Amino acid sequence: MILNYFTTCPHLTSITFRAGASFLFAFFYIFLLAPRFINSLKRFQAKGQPIRTFGPESHVKTKAGTPTMGGLIIIIAVGMAHLLFGRMSFASNGLLFLLVTFGAIGAMDDIKKLRKNSFHGIPARVKFLLQLAGAAAFLGIYYCYTPANMAGGISLPFMKAFLLNNTFLHFVFGVFVIVAFSNAVNLTDGLDGLASFPSLISFSTLGAIAYLSSHKGMAGYLEILHLAQAGEVTVFASAVAGALLGFLWYNALPAQMFMGDTGSLGLGAALGGTAILLKQEFLAAIIGAVFVAETVSVMLQVTYFKATGGKRIFLMTPIHHHFEKKGWSEATVVKRFWIISLICAVVGLLTLKVRF
């Protein structure tokens, strides 16, 4: 926004430059300021994030005292990059709304956990209702800014045409996508760097797709939707990717801070919102298959446990804990999940060229 007021140079206001600048700004903002931020978190969090006692035994020793709510610095970095290099549009403002709103819900949860020194935060029902309200608000405004012939459309990978075009069904589906991605990233955030890198890959990949969608020639060549505001999605996604890369510097094993629900709920919601704006909800599930697998593992475990009177499919869920229980080191689990995330991103990009 600010950049556009101070320059008329087309090169400096282009999507490519603003995306790159927002990425670098967000990265260096966190890279340079995180040490002071971590010290501030430690001063206000005497015991750090409460560790689940029924989780892997090693976590109680290795992760105790690590401060949480690191997602705050991610939200601040993205917000400032948006202010400097973004433009006033529903696409970018709406995604920032999701990041901040769901981040606030996560902050409420983190603060209650810290005050009680317990891994139990705000009631799950309250958290879920707040998430539904935030997603519904985003979609309500989305329909006001999106052409009627496109607003209710849902697309599938490999298909050129919409699967359907019904606003009510799209609303229900859209709320599900945002809330599901929000909680999926939250479930994945259980090991150092496990949620950060797949989130970085997902936002980078969707940002690249947004750039292709914003370019009429490229969109036509790939036979995907040409979306006028997709360029601003590219700038926003670049800012998030840069912030996550800077955060990962301090979140990689051994983590100096955790993003907490503040970061994971906000990032997941923004990821779901990005998929909705690009009409790539199912493709986002392929790109973010790590998040999907983590969520499905929990759902299967709970369902099977109730149906069989206490039997389990996995040693522990989310599924990253299953591999820890099998003897994999935390570093091994994280690195292999990173590799899977990269492969899924490549597969997602490949689907753009295979369309019927």
Question: Features of this protein?
Answer:
globular; mainly alpha; 16 helices; two-stranded antiparallel sheet
Provide an overview of this structure.
It is a single chain. The protein has about 350 residues and is mainly alpha-helical. The chain has one domain. The protein is about 70% helix and about 0% strand. The protein has 16 helices and two strands. The chain has a two-stranded antiparallel ribbon. It is globular and about 55 Å long. The two termini are about 40 Å apart.
Gist of the model:
The protein has 356 residues and is an all-alpha fold. The protein contains 16 helices and two strands. A two-stranded antiparallel sheet has the order 1-2.
Structural class call reads mainly alpha
- What's the β-strand tally? 2
Low-confidence stretches: none
Q: How much β-strand is present in the residues?
A: under 5%
How confident is the prediction overall: mean pLDDT? 91
Sheet with the most strands: spatial strand order: 1-2
Give the SSE map.
Elements: H1 2-6, H2 15-44, H3 57-62, H4 71-85, H5 90-116, H6 124-145, H7 148-151, E1 153-154, E2 164-165, H8 167-188, H9 196-214, H10 216-222, H11 230-251, H12 260-278, H13 281-287, H14 289-308, H15 319-325, H16 330-350
Antiparallel strand pairs: 1-2
Helix pairs in contact: 2-4, 2-11, 4-5, 4-11, 4-12, 5-6, 5-11, 5-12, 6-8, 8-12, 8-14, 9-11, 9-12, 9-16, 11-12, 12-13, 13-14, 13-16
